[in-house]
Design a protein that fits this description.
With 1266 residues, the protein is an alpha/beta fold. Helices cover 33% and strands 20% of the residues. α12 crosses α16, α20 packs across α21 and α23 crosses α24.
Length: 1266
């Protein structure tokens, strides 16, 4: 693709071979295989392709084509009136002297932007509405002339000068910027257009001033201000005699004129415009030296757009040149002004053409996501922050050539190909399979608009759908179809699309899309002034109207541009990282047309190495490959007299514990227990439980810990599922499962006897890979699943030299539920290090004061509390934790406030934030804290433990970059063996590890979302599926839902976790017989089947479960429970005088007959302009409120409450009569000015006394500002 003539790129083919083949013959052969747009317009024969010194193709050395290289059809003159007219239009636009009837628009140098201009000229000349797609389908002159016969006649009226006696409306684009200015003060700076040029040489200041003045005379848009008329904004054209506001600043005496000039440039970008007062364009002429000047021009976007800059520069150059040479204005008069366009646009907006286009956009964007949830470095501010940064970027020549090549193969433009890659990147970053991207279009579809300065640019929202995981070719085809369809529907103002779709209103981000992609294909116009050398000056303007704004253009052999970003959301390093991902993705996309988008690599080698090796792999450590009981026996031989366990009943030494376990193991063997079998232990936290579990292991069996507080029905189900051979329970237990040997242990006396009773060593040697225990967790199908964990997995957890390694002098609280995996470290971490286990009685564990007293009394050094318990207990227990060396928390991300409470009370030396599911032997990551964390940031979950590996992968199994959310996968030494008797589920969740060095290794899909942070720690983001965590317990609501459906009267049930009150709680939503669905009754029924932590806190009855358009449950619309856990959707009449007044105003503005106190302004059809009108009416009634309050409180009752809190402000009457011609001191009682001082001030006010207002109108409002 060459651009030998600026603004006219064309395809050129370079060939080696038989040079006797003509360009026309080559083109004819290619035309049988390629669409017209992909045919080169020139064919250059070479003896050899030029190469660089390193052997690569030297594209820069390829010669420009000569005339004989052009593929020109045998000339045939245009026939008929239409072909002749088209030939004239083509000649003007393409800059060619002769156009034949067989010539192709694109072969002659045409492109999509020139195509749009051609359509505009056809409309003006023939009154025909030809879609742009018709030009792509029939690019030859004769074919296009035939297409005109079937084209629709344009129904749009001509744009004519409007009646200036009536108030002039704003265009739709102007109205949006006016509304943004009213909604957010910061938007005033976000929509500035600032630029500068360095002028070297002789400058004629008078000519420059006259040229700028004449621009204001010529373009009424540049001297427009904006006011309100009958609650609606209007534009007012100010008289031209004021001239252009150009401030001359002499910096020649400054010690650093260049730095001072830069300060002025920065000041320009920080100085807002007042839309009501104007002027909305200004300039500064900085004199740095006699022949060195800098011209700064700043405009508000409401009066100009990017195209306007080209018009302004071109006309400024023409006017300056003429005036500097003593000539008059050389520019032809304008037939219309921007205000005429605004009036015209408002008049035809309801026509049938617009309605057809609106129908397209309604269908195109229906159901599309309205927020692109990119991973941000900081939470999104409540109000959009327009502060921005920018990254300059470029695609090298090789990648640009590859992009052009694949574009040719698939009949797309380079813009479409890059857009497809950009959409694919955004989808991966956000984890969403549909993305909506904004795209600006010039919107000058009529030729009479081309020479005007004004805000014509329109925005289109393009929806890119990757739900089917398309191939590269399929995605390119989809984007091509989407882009061409959008180009055929260009006339609908974006503001109309917003009102049509009525997306959720949120002042924290733009509606419909938050990412813009601008492709610059408008030929640049350089300012040229006689006797001056001009150089563009980079503006220091740092603003971002969107989360991301990618601006690109073709520049010879490269694609160059910038990536703007909101600095309130993103760090510069994040944007740089994403651009590297984009380049890698684009490289992959150009290499394989058939590859699935999901499988394209998007990490370069250094990034991949960092994530998989540096971040994701724990240290390598040697761990003994012996079973737990043998490791314990070795410890008992080393420290036989050390205290192993302490309980209310006393203490037990290591030697005694080993002996007691041997005796129980002997008894179990006599009962028939064999290696590989399972024994259920239904015992509370106690010495007996520890003896029992150790004895089971000595038999080569695995223990199945049960929670004795669970319903018997549930325990029997678990015993049956685990297929246990023996049940060990307490004397008071009534459990009596069939075909299971039951062994009762009342206390340790049951195990007393002489050592002679042990006739054979009971300990059986099993490999470290053998099962040590089976622990049950909640199941999504309603059935709990048993996780089988090996001896080696536990040994790796407790014996490695990591932050959780225990010491022989530790006193460790046995405080966890035995059926919960926190007990693993408490028991085995202690016993394999010679530490002491201190059993915490159940009543003590339920009382934070009692637990704190026990910690202090027993001088405990290690305590494990799940995050939910720690959050609740911290205020009461923190002062009593002074003896702790280590406080471990897990089960969920710890509350930073709770940790701060602990540290401030001196409650622990180190707090260890841990993470890990039951499938990984308690935890596989750890983050050690020695001081209070930052309470404003989420606490990471740390780094991998030794011999473990962590991967954060997208839904297709590809690693994701730093900061991007993905599903956390675990691998390595602590991985469980799988699920007991659930081979299908095991295969689903324990999958082959594609990143492992050794074949046959597996990784576990946790279902948890996480992301890597830049420091190599993991950030936990919550569950990826319906599974939740309550009080540290992992719960799959499906099990609760299954239990609910078995309750009388329940037809359908859904359970979710909500945190409306700050505390996470389970809420059940039910459909069924209302007469018997009482929360107390339901809870009672569930309590017989489910443990306490799985019982919902609220029960909400619904007539039907809400569904999405595709028939899936719409969890996002499930209502928060009220005090009675009842769903209230019925109409509730406004209460009180203020709510009734508001209801009347809403009814009038929204055109609805009835407004309830719980109705939402925007849900009833309100939009931004109506919101401003409502606020204006409230102000006239004496209520002072910002329009943002309505966005924050959109319900009638909420807004009324806001108004009452603000209270009405009484505005005193204005003492200055509108007809007043002279201001006197008695009219201004709030200021001490003499008559002479007043006269001096009034003299500086445009319009004199008629434009002076009484300050008392704002005095009371100002007094309320603190």
């Amino acid at each position: 693709l060459r651009e030998d003539t600026p603004g006219e790129p064309r395809l050129v083919a370079y060939l080696i071979g038989d040079a006797d083949i003509s360009a026309d013959a080559l083109r004819t052969q290619l035309a049988t295989r390629l669409p017209e747009i992909m045919l080169p317009s020139a064919y250059v024969w070479l003896d050899a392709l030029p190469l660089t010194s390193n052997g690569k193709l030297d594209r820069r050395a390829l010669p420009a084509p000569e005339t004989d290289a052009l593929a020109v059809q045998t000339y045939a003159a245009p026939e008929g009136e239409r072909e002749t007219l088209l030939a004239t239009l083509w000649s003007e636009l393409l800059g060619v002297e002769r156009v034949g009837r067989h010539d192709s628009f694109f072969a002659l140098g045409g492109h999509s932007l020139l195509g749009v201009r051609l359509i505009s000229r056809i409309r003006s000349a023939l009154g025909i509405e030809l879609p742009l797609a018709a030009l792509f389908a029939q690019p030859r002159l004769a074919e296009l002339a035939l297409a005109l016969d079937s084209a629709d006649t344009s129904t749009l009226p001509a744009i004519v000068p409007s009646d200036r006696s009536a108030p002039l409306p704003l265009s739709f684009a102007q109205q949006r910027l006016w509304l943004l200015d009213r909604l957010d003060d910061r938007a005033a700076l976000a929509y500035l257009i600032a630029g500068g040029v360095r002028l070297s040489g002789h400058l004629d200041r008078d000519a420059l001033g006259k040229a700028l003045d004449q621009l204001l005379v010529r373009h009424q848009s540049l001297r427009t201000v904006f006011s309100s008329h009958d609650d609606s904004p209007t534009q007012v054209v100010v008289a031209a005699n004021a001239g252009f506001y150009l401030e001359y600043i002499d910096l020649r005496q400054s010690p650093a004129p260049a730095a001072e000039a830069q300060r002025h440039a920065e000041q320009e970008t920080r100085t807002p415009f007042d839309l009501a007062r104007g002027p909305l364009i200004r300039g500064r002429l900085l004199c740095l030296a006699e022949h060195e000047h800098r011209l700064l021009i700043t405009m508000h976007h409401i009066v100009a757009d990017g195209w306007s800059i080209s018009v302004l520069l071109q006309e400024l150059g023409a006017l300056y040149t003429a005036f500097a040479r003593g000539k008059t204005d050389p520019l032809p008069p304008l037939s219309i002004q921007y205000q005429d366009y605004a009036v015209w646009q408002r008049r035809w907006i309801d026509g049938p053409l617009l309605q057809r286009q609106l129908s397209f956009w309604r269908a195109h964007l229906h159901g599309a996501p309205t927020l692109l949830e990119l991973p941000t470095d900081r939470p999104r501010p409540v109000l959009q922050d327009y502060t921005g940064g920018s990254l300059d970027l470029a695609l090298d020549a090789d990648l640009t050539a590859a992009v052009r090549a694949i574009s040719q193969r698939h009949g797309t433009t380079v813009f479409m190909t890059v857009l497809a890659a950009w959409g694919a990147l955004l989808a991966r970053l956000s984890g969403q399979n549909q993305v909506v991207i904004g795209m600006p279009i010039a919107n000058r579809t009529r030729s009479e608009l081309e020479p005007l300065i004004g805000l014509f640019v329109n925005t289109q929202a393009l929806r890119i759908d990757l739900r089917t995981d398309p191939s590269v070719g399929q995605l390119l085809g989809h984007v091509r179809t989407t882009a061409l369809a959008a180009q055929q529907h260009p006339d609908v103002p974006f503001e109309q699309v917003i009102e049509l779709l009525n997306p959720p209103r949120n002042l924290s981000h733009p509606p419909l899309f938050q990412v813009m992609f601008a492709w610059q294909n408008t030929p640049a116009v350089a300012l040229e002034l006689p006797d001056l050398r001009l150089e563009s000056v980079q503006s220091p303007f740092t603003v971002s109207k969107f989360d991301l704004e990618l601006t690109l253009q073709e520049d010879g052999a490269r694609i160059v541009g910038s990536l703007g970003y909101g600095t309130a959301l993103f760090d510069a390093t994040t944007i740089q990282r994403w651009w590297r991902c984009f380049e890698q993705l684009l490289h992959a996309l150009t290499r394989d047309d058939d590859a699935r988008i999901s499988q394209l690599p998007w990490l370069d080698a250094p990034q991949r190495e960092q994530l998989l090796a540096d971040f994701g792999t724990g240290d390598m450590a040697a761990v003994p490959e012996q079973p737990l009981h043998q490791l314990f026996e070795a410890q008992a031989r080393r420290t036989p007299d050390a205290i192993a366990v302490v309980s209310e009943q006393g203490s037990m030494r290591y030697a005694t514990l080993d002996t007691q376990a041997d005796r129980l193991a002997q008894r179990l063997r006599r009962l028939g227990l064999r290696a590989g079998q399972r024994v259920a232990t239904a015992l509370p936290r106690s010495v007996e439980l520890i003896v029992a579990q150790l004895a089971v292991l000595k038999c080569g069996a695995a223990y199945v810990p049960l929670d004795v507080d669970h319903p018997d029905e549930r325990l029997l189900a678990l015993i049956d599922d685990a297929q246990v051979s023996v049940l060990i329970h307490a004397a008071d237990s009534v459990l009596a499962p069939a075909q299971v040997v039951c062994l009762t242990i009342a206390d340790l006396d049951d195990l007393q006897g002489s050592d002679d009773d042990i006739t054979t060593p009971p300990a059986i040697a099993v490999p470290a890979t053998a099962a040590a225990y089976v622990m049950y967790t909640s199941g999504s199908t309603g059935t709990p699943k048993g996780v089988t964990v090996s001896h080696g997995a536990v040994a790796n957890l407790v014996l490695q030299d990591g932050p959780a390694r225990l010491r022989s002098d530790d006193r460790v609280a046995f405080a966890s539920n035995p059926a919960f995996d926190s007990a693993t470290l408490e028991v085995w971490g202690s016993l394999l290090h010679g530490a002491t286990v201190v059993v915490v009685p159940a009543p003590v564990m339920r009382d934070p004061q009692a637990l704190g007293a026990l910690v202090a009394r027993e001088r405990l050094s290690v305590l494990i509390l799940v995050a939910g318990v720690l959050r609740t207990y911290a205020p009461a227990i923190a002062p009593q934790l002074g003896t702790l060396r280590l406080l471990l928390t897990g089960g969920d991300v710890a509350d930073p406030h709770a940790l701060t409470t602990v540290f401030e009370a001196g409650g622990a030396t180190t707090v260890l934030q841990t993470y890990g599911p039951t499938e990984s032997a308690q935890f596989v990551t750890a983050l050690a804290l020695q001081h209070a964390p930052d309470a404003t940031r989420r606490l990471p979950i740390g780094r991998p433990l030794a011999n473990t590996r962590l991967y954060v992968l997208d839904r297709h199994g590809q690693p994701v970059p730093i900061g991007v959310a993905g599903e956390l996968h675990l691998a390595g030494a602590q991985l469980a063996q799988g699920y007991m008797h659930r081979p299908a589920l095991t295969a689903e969740r324990f999958v082959p590890d594609p990143f492992a060095e050794q074949p046959g290794e597996r990784m576990y899909k946790t279902g948890d979302l996480a992301c890597w942070l830049a420091d190599g720690t993991l950030d936990f983001l919550g569950r990826n599926d319906a599974q939740v965590k309550i009080r540290g317990f992992r719960i799959e609501p499906g099990e609760i839902e299954a239990a609910l459906r078995s309750c009388a009267g329940v037809q359908e049930a859904v359970v979710i976790a909500r945190a409306d009150t700050g505390e996470k709680r389970l809420v059940a939503y039910l459909v069924g017989d209302a007469s018997i669905l009482e929360p107390a009754t339901l809870r009672s029924q569930l309590a017989t089947r489910l443990p306490d932590h799985m019982l919902p806190a609220s029960y909400v009855q619904l007539d039907a479960l809400p569904l999405t358009p595709n028939g899936k449950l719409d969890r996002a619309t499930l209502p928060a429970p009220d005090d009675q856990a009842l769903d209230l959707h019925a109409y509730v009449a406004p209460q009180g005088e203020l709510e009734q007044v508001l209801a009347t105003l809403w009814s009038e503005l929204l055109g609805v007959a009835q407004v309830g106190r719980h109705d939402d302004f925007f849900a009833l059809g309100g939009h931004s302009l109506l919101a401003v009108k409502l606020i204006e009416r409230l102000r006239r009634l004496g209520w002072q409120i910002d329009v943002r309050a309505l966005f924050a409180q959109p319900t009638l009752a909420g807004l009324a409450g806001n108004l009452q809190a603000a209270s009405a402000i009484e505005v005193p009457p204005n003492r200055i009569d509108p007809e007043c011609t002279r201001i006197t001191p008695d009219l201004l009682p709030l200021v001490a000015l003499t008559q002479a001082e007043i006269e001096a001030i009034v003299a500086t006010v445009d319009g004199g006394a008629a434009n002076v207002q009484d300050w008392r109108h704002c005095s009371k409002a100002c007094s309320s500002i603190t």
